């Protein structure tokens, strides 16, 4: 698999995200996918799907800005900012209707033209701070 194929796979993943994660995750991920978020949360393919679909149900009007997308060997790195409107309950917190923004840095590993593993550093604290501060104002 070439670095160009890595980038094409990530472009398919971003396109799925833009469609609220509709589609077959197996088009992008291996069946034995393993995800790691901030070294504490471990995902398999089904929990990844649930997490992403749940996010799409809690946030709408999502805009993603990819700042960096680099590929090398069997890996790629993406640095991204996501902006979205909090329109559904998230972690038990009712919708605030406010615009949120958070960043992520993700390292992907590929096998057979699909993502088989990822490590994500996500600004969950910043996102939760925005939600909680906005909730207190409402």
Description of the molecule:
- The protein has 138 residues and is of the alpha+beta class.
- It has one domain: Nuclear Transport Factor 2, Chain: A.
- The chain has helices spanning 3-18, 45-58, 124-137; strands spanning 29-37, 41-43, 59-72, 75-86, 99-111, 114-122.
- It has a six-stranded mixed sheet with strand order 2-1-6-5-4-3.
- A hairpin with a 2-residue loop joins strand 3 and strand 4 (75-86).
How are the strands ordered across the major sheet?
2-1-6-5-4-3
Mean pLDDT: 92
Count of discrete alpha- or pi-helical segments spanning 4 or more residues: 3
* Beta-strand percent range: 35-45%
CATH architecture annotation: Roll
| Helix-strand makeup class | alpha+beta
Examine the coordinates and then state which fold CATH places here, giving the name of the CATH topology: Nuclear Transport Factor 2, Chain: A
Order of helices and strands: HEEHEEEEH
Helix content: 25-40%
Strand element count: 6
Instruction: Give start-end ranges of low-pLDDT stretches.
Output: none
Largest sheet: 6 strands, mixed
Radius of gyration equals 15 Å
Distance between the termini: 50 Å
CATH class: Alpha Beta
How many domains, in number, for the residues? 1
Morphology:
globular
Identify the notable features of this structure and list them briefly.
138 residues, alpha+beta, Nuclear Transport Factor 2, Chain: A, six-stranded mixed beta sheet, 6 strands, globular
